[in-house]
């Protein structure tokens, strides 16, 4: 009998005591990245299905202190920027801490964390050993399939279309297989059921065992919100769902999620075109100039896409070309972020006239990282894909023909070829094992049977659901669905206009609703729809020179109102800065 076998039971007893009857005492110290924040690490079971087996995970936390006097402090407020796979620590330090603190009038300690498997959490969900292999894996993956819109409407193109998808799928499939083969110990312990138990452990450690979760979840962070309220309904404090992912579709194979996500892409493209046209050529470079009034912006974008399909434009450095697939990826990515549109319009206009430089600069700025040491350990930059796969039901049985049909359907419905850019998850999960974590997600089970609504209503807990009306990634229909599932324990507040999550464009009415909820606990008695207070194509200043220019708000605002809008933009910049 070895020492190891002898000691294991003792270790398990000690760890069991730690988790069942006491809370970890966290030692905070100033964060290395910025001394305005404190950082610490929480130790939690790696496998909640057998929490006392001695295996642990380490999850880093960061805190931006409440600014009010101690007696006015309301506890802690967690935030998560989604992904999945995004670092909450980066989000907090990049401005979410300060911005959310301003919006909530300093009443809370604002906390974020790197979800298990992600960022500086350990074990890290890595798919390769070194950063060099990881970057080569990413570089081998095309940004999107090479497809042009008219191919969708002409049956004789189908073999070509199918071949393009096959080529794309096979490249992404290689990554999925390599990732599964690497078999990180975080691979099957990083799904939502595990993350929400960590969130409860964070609240235990910070506000005590009877503490409630206050939370602002953005985008995929709403999946953690939905899983949490079903798992721990008695611990629901004030929870904001911002940019809602459909929790039911997320429990199914990814083929269910994709068509649920893409319902407002055409509306967003139309917003881009109409806002640009209204702004005129001085504020939006793509606004139809008097020299060529024959084509509207929608038609020009489609034309450019077709032209790139036949004739890719060489990038200035001559090592690569801007293809239709790259254009799809670029447009699909920036459609989510309206403050970037003036810059995007300038780059697209330049490309239209044969100047590839601004486009290439924006694209490489968004996709390239510089590696100083190829043999340094992996950063886990691909963790989002396997996390998404293991949160879904297996997609292993999804055929490529099914994928092709699905893409064809949503592309025709939204009248755009750009949705190909959103295929990577489906391709990845289709080529990923059927294995799932031991502890299954609830998905939407206790939402659909109204169990959660009943418990929340009995406890007078109300959550706040917020969404833009034209969100190309997390459609308002998913927000409405969540509101229906929580018909007596939630309120829905939306804002007009485009963008992914409500913070992507300032809206005074909307941010005031969030503030009142977090500060006073009040939710509006009926659903509300607010206007945006930010001009997308303001013209002048640095508007067309940066993807996040200084914001311009329309209306007459008090200092306090302006502060709320500015704070929203600070949170947005932190959000869009994430990979
Ligand atoms: C935050 O508050 C704690 C407790 O009062 C204090 O120890 C810590 O120094 C504060 N951190 C910062 C960055 O001010
Ligand atoms: C540290 O964070 C604070 C609060 O977000 C910010 O005001 C400050 O500029 C940051 N400092 C550095 C050096 O980044
Ligand atoms: C369909 O595509 C074929 C080429 O594959 C082309 O010959 C034909 O003209 C196209 N039809 C239409 C209606 O565009
Ligand atoms: C992956 O690792 C786990 C332990 O973390 C082990 O139980 C499992 O058999 C491994 N799977 C493969 C396919 O190697
Ligand atoms: C103007 O639009 C027509 C199509 O209506 C197009 O063929 C032409 O290239 C455009 N000219 C310029 C200068 O953009
Ligand atoms: C833009 O032009 C296309 C074709 O030229 C037309 O079908 C479409 O209705 C126009 N859109 C707008 C908003 O005018
Ligand atoms: C590169 O990283 C490896 C692994 O961490 C390390 O052993 C090596 O010393 C590093 N090389 C340089 C030049 O920093
Ligand atoms: C529920 O909470 C609201 C807002 O805090 C409060 O006005 C109301 O009286 C509470 N109702 C019950 C039954 O506790
Ligand atoms: C909270 O409620 C108080 C009392 O009704 C009100 O004066 C205050 O403006 C409210 N604060 C917020 C942020 O809604
Ligand atoms: C601000 O301008 C936008 C258009 O950029 C408009 O949709 C919105 O209604 C305006 N908001 C207000 C409060 O006037
Ligand atoms: C990668 C993976 O798990 N592939 C599986 C997909 O499903 C088939 C049929 O069930 C299995 O044979 C594969 O191993």
From TrEMBL:
<feature type="domain" description="AB hydrolase-1">
    <location>
        <begin position="76"/>
        <end position="244"/>
    </location>
</feature>
<dbReference type="GO" id="GO:0016787">
    <property type="term" value="F:hydrolase activity"/>
</dbReference>
<dbReference type="InterPro" id="IPR051601">
    <property type="entry name" value="Serine_prot/Carboxylest_S33"/>
</dbReference>
<protein>
    <submittedName>
        <fullName>Alpha/Beta hydrolase protein</fullName>
    </submittedName>
</protein>
<feature type="signal peptide">
    <location>
        <begin position="1"/>
        <end position="24"/>
    </location>
</feature>
<dbReference type="Pfam" id="PF08386">
    <property type="entry name" value="Abhydrolase_4"/>
</dbReference>
<keyword id="KW-0378">Hydrolase</keyword>
<feature type="domain" description="Peptidase S33 tripeptidyl aminopeptidase-like C-terminal">
    <location>
        <begin position="450"/>
        <end position="526"/>
    </location>
</feature>
<keyword id="KW-0732">Signal</keyword>
<dbReference type="InterPro" id="IPR000073">
    <property type="entry name" value="AB_hydrolase_1"/>
</dbReference>
<dbReference type="Pfam" id="PF00561">
    <property type="entry name" value="Abhydrolase_1"/>
</dbReference>
<dbReference type="InterPro" id="IPR029058">
    <property type="entry name" value="AB_hydrolase_fold"/>
</dbReference>
<dbReference type="InterPro" id="IPR013595">
    <property type="entry name" value="Pept_S33_TAP-like_C"/>
</dbReference>
<comment type="similarity">
    <text>Belongs to the peptidase S33 family.</text>
</comment>
């Amino acid at each position: 009998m070895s020492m190891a076998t002898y000691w294991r039971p003792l270790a398990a007893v000690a760890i069991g005591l730690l988790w069942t009857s006491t809370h970890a005492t966290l030692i905070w110290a100033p964060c290395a990245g910025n001394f305005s924040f404190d950082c610490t690490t929480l130790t939690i079971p790696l496998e909640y299905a057998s929490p006392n087996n001695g295996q642990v995970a380490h999850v880093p936390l960061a805190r931006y202190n409440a600014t009010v006097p101690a007696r006015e402090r309301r506890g802690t407020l967690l935030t998560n920027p989604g992904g999945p796979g995004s670092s909450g620590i980066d989000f907090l330090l990049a401005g979410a801490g300060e911005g959310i603190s301003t919006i909530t009038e300093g009443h809370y300690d604002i906390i974020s964390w790197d979800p298990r498997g992600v960022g500086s959490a350990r074990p890290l969900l890595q798919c390769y050993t070194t950063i060099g292999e990881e970057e080569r894996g990413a570089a081998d993956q095309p940004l999107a399939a090479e497809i042009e819109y008219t191919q969708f409407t002409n049956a004789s193109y189908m073999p070509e279309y199918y071949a393009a998808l096959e080529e794309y799928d096979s490249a992404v499939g290689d990554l999925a297989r390599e990732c599964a083969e690497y078999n990180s110990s975080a691979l099957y312990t990083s799904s939502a059921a595990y993350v929400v138990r960590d969130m409860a452990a964070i609240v235990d450690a910070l506000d005590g065992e009877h503490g409630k979760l206050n939370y602002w979840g953005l985008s995929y962070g709403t999946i953690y919100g939905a899983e949490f309220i079903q798992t721990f309904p008695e611990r629901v404090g004030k929870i904001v769902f911002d940019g809602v992912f459909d929790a039911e579709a997320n429990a199914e194979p990814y083929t269910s999620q994709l068509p649920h996500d893409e319902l407002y892409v055409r509306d967003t493209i139309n917003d881009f075109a109409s806002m640009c046209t209204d702004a005129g050529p001085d504020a939006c470079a793509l606004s139809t100039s008097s020299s060529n009034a024959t084509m509207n912006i929608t038609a020009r974008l489609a034309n450019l896409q077709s032209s790139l399909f036949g004739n890719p434009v060489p990038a200035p450095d001559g090592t690569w070309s801007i293809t239709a697939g790259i254009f799809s990826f670029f447009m699909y990515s920036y459609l989510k972020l309206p403050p970037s549109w003036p810059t995007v319009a300038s780059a697209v206009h330049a490309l239209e006239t044969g100047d590839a430089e601004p486009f290439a600069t924006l694209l490489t700025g968004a996709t390239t990282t510089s590696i100083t040491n190829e043999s340094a350990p992996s950063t886990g930059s691909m963790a989002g894909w396997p996390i998404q796969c293991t949160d879904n039901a297996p997609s292993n049985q999804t055929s490529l023909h099914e994928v092709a049909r699905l893409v064809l359907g949503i592309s025709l419905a939204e009248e755009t070829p750009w949705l190909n850019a959103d295929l990577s998850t489906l391709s990845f999960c289709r080529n990923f094992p059927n294995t799932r974590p031991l502890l299954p997600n609830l998905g939407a089970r206790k939402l659909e049977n109204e169990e959660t609504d009943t418990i929340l209503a009995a406890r007078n807990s109300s959550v706040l659901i917020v969404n833009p009306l034209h969100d190309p990634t997390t459609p308002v229909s998913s927000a409405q669905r969540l509101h229906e599932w929580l018909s007596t324990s939630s309120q829905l507040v939306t804002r007009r206009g485009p963008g992914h999550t409500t913070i992507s464009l300032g809206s005074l009415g909307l941010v005031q609703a969030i503030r009142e909820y977090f500060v006073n606990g009040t939710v509006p008695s009926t659903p509300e729809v607010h206007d945006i207070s930010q001009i997308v194509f303001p013209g002048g200043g640095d508007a067309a020179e940066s993807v996040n220019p200084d914001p311009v708000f329309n209306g007459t605002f008090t200092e306090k109102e302006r502060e709320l809008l500015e704070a929203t933009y600070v949170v947005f910049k932190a959000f869009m800065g994430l990979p």
